[in-house]
Amino acid sequence: MAVPKRKHSNARSGSRRAHDHKTLIQRTNCPDCSTAIPTHVVCPKCGHYMKRQVVIPKE
Hints:
- The chain has 59 residues and is α+β, with helices and mostly antiparallel strands.
- The chain has a domain of 34 residues.
- The chain is built from one helix and four strands, in the order αββββ.
- The strands form two sheets. It has a two-stranded antiparallel sheet. A two-stranded antiparallel ribbon has the order 3-4.
- A hairpin with a 2-residue loop joins strand 3 and strand 4.
- The radius of gyration is 22 Å and the shape is rod-shaped.
């Protein structure tokens, strides 16, 4: 099994982890009630998905 001979520097570790940050959730507006929701998700306010009534919302 391979064992590293020297310790990686902080700069090397930091540059390797440069792309490991969190990304924001992509949101769109519901075409019916214009609520901001994540993509490919049923709207919790009106119950529409892809311009169809999928769920009857509780009021």
